[in-house]
Amino acid sequence: MAKLDSITKWVTIGMLFVISTVNAAQYNAPQAEGEGEIQSLNFGASQMVVNGYIYDVSATVRVEIRGTFGAFTMLEEGMLIEFDFLRFDDGVRQIVTVREVAAVEEY
Known about the structure:
The chain is of the alpha+beta class. It is 24% helix and 45% strand.
């Protein structure tokens, strides 16, 4: 019985180590900037397509439309935007800020 308790203890410690390592990698994601035209929006999945790339949208995204506070659901296809996003190791790109702009550089 004591041997089983010891094995369970070490398996639990190992699992916690793996989980904390994965979470640490996710939270240390590098931030990048982007710009372009919104091609599609999926409010249910919290995703948008900009210049052919799919981005997840953070639940706490900061949105600025025409110079004032906005919400993700106020964005529209065809809008030109600048945005900041996080790049995660698993390939996920998550937008954390969005600003509507009048023009973007050619891409």
